[in-house]
Amino acid sequence: MLTDWSMLGFLLPPIVVPVIVALVVHYLTRRLWSRLGIYRWFWHPNLVDIAFFALWFWVVMAIWPGQAPAPF
After folding, report:
1. Which residue(s) pair with 10 in the sheet?
2. Residue 12: predicted pLDDT
3. Do 17 and 23 contact (CB within 8 A), yes or no?
4. Which spans in 1-72 are helix H?
């Protein structure tokens, strides 16, 4: 069973760590794409950002031990 973590008096759900990992990977991907100029090919770069964060989050959850993402 998954339990909450106590950090500075706040109870955090166990999904916080995979979310932070996905945010870091997403940030690095955004920096790389901005530097390479890939964002100019998209009409709405913000929608691409949201889609890629969802993709990175799903990938992190798929490889995270003890947590299984929802199947498509």
Report:
1. 7
2. 84
3. no
4. 16-36, 45-63
Q: What pTM value is reported for the model?
A: 0.75
Is 67 within 8 Å of 61 (Cβ atoms)? Answer: yes
Structure tokens at 43: 């009409």
Question: What gap in Å lies between CA 21 and CA 57, rounded to an integer?
Answer: 8
Owner of token pair 């090919």: 41
Model confidence over 1-50: pLDDT tens digits?
A: 567 778 788 888 888 888 999 999 999 999 999 999 988 898 898 999 99
Work out whether the CA dihedral 12, 15, 18, 20 comes out positive or negative: negative
Residue type, 69: P
Joined together, the tokens standing for residue 46 give 């913000």
Strand partners, 5: 12
Please tell me the predicted confidence (pLDDT) of residue 14.
81
